[in-house]
Amino acid sequence: MPERIRPTVARVDLGALKSNYRAIVDHLARERPAGTPGVIAVVKANAYGHGAVQIARALEDAGADLLACADIEEGAVLRAAGVRAEILVFGALSVSDLDGLFDGRLTPTISSPGAARAVQAAAARYKARLRYHLKIDTGMNRLGFRFDNLGRTLPELLRSGNLELDAVFTHFATADDPESPLFDEQRRRFEQALAAVEALGARPRYRHAANSAALLRDPRVWFDRVRPGLLLYGIVPPPLAPTIELTPVMTLMSRVVAVKGMRALETTGYGARFTAKRATTIAIVPAGYADGLDLRLAGRGAVLIRGRRAPIVGSVCMDMLIADVTGMDASPGDEVVLIGRQGGDCIDAREMADTIGSIPWEIVCRVGGRIERVYAGA
Ligand SMILES: *Cc1c(COP(=O)(O)O)cnc(C)c1O
């Protein structure tokens, strides 16, 4: 029996993913031929909604040797699927079952003295020597050892007999805001922290700081590795300009399931928010907020049908939305593109985010679990 799948699917182009990975690697090599930084390929949150296992495998194929997840559980899923690359866990570990680090051969981030003690104790129990990345808080004020009192907080961690400092990193709060002075401030604080770590006698193998926006913006923060997430998926963090040639990896598409006419002054959808000003043709598309489409798209966004923009009208419902296809000759079965290219037009995640006052990271992460991911270009 052929597997049944819904008409609404997310097509994931693994060929585009690999070419994005290579474009980033080439860009780094071109801009810095001596001491080219490596890449940490970020596949957290189900690879930004694209499917962690397939994405991780394709990145390994493309040459990635270090992947990053949000937590131990995500890392375990990749290991269970046979991913062999090193896997860094970004998140705090204080409420996690640390056995997963050893079962999955994962590399933890240590971001507090409490976590340091817990991981040291677990490593001692396993009679293991565990490499870790040290996270420094340079101004995000979220996770990490504060940059300005490492002399007090680090010595105990550095003495831990079962832990080995592999890398030191920080994370920028405003890399995508060219106006913010905090970005440069965080770079200086990180450099100060690196000097403090050295002064304590530690010799990490490498240092990293740059997410996608920082990678695009400032080679001074590339250090020894960069950590792109969004760029891998072919999306440039707004408002930055694309300076690397990338292709969007995900296309979200569906099919028209019904077309009907409305008379002038009739309304459609919950709340009767759209009133037809004249005779109007609408198409029903079987994708709604349960699939991750935002309510605010109604009255603001559009979908592509027959190569043209059909405004989303009325309301985004749980399982469907309504598009105005007046004059477009649409019929049931027509392909609908919600995110992606059709004909000469394109609605990308960045545009959809802008339409609803969100960010492209959220747009791809929220693509619903019931939407089948269909992979091509493996
Ligand atoms: C998510 C994340 C990244 C990747 O961010 P993008 O903006 O998607 O490139 C990098 N570093 C850390 C610590 C992260 O949590």
Description:
This protein is of the alpha/beta class. The chain is built from eleven helices and 22 strands. It folds into two domains: 37-233, Alpha-Beta Barrel (TIM Barrel), CATH 3.20.20; 250-376, Lyase, Ornithine Decarboxylase, Chain A, domain 1, CATH 2.40.37.10. The strands form three sheets. Strands 1, 12, 13, 16, 17, 18, 19, 20, 21 and 22 form a ten-stranded mixed sheet that branches. Pyridoxal-5'-phosphate is lined by residues 42, 44, 90, 171, 211-213, 227-230, 237, 361.
Shape: elongated
Unreliable stretches: none
Would you identify the CATH architecture of the largest domain?
Alpha-Beta Barrel
Question: Would you tell me which CATH topology of the largest domain applies?
Answer: TIM Barrel
Strand fraction band? 25-35%
| Biggest sheet layout | 10 strands, mixed
- How many separate domains make up the residues? 2
Tally of strands: 22
Question: How does the helix and strand content classify structurally?
Answer: alpha/beta
Please, how many helices? 11
The CATH superfamily of the largest domain is identified as Alanine racemase
- Mean pLDDT comes to 96
> Any idea of the CATH class of the largest domain?
Alpha Beta
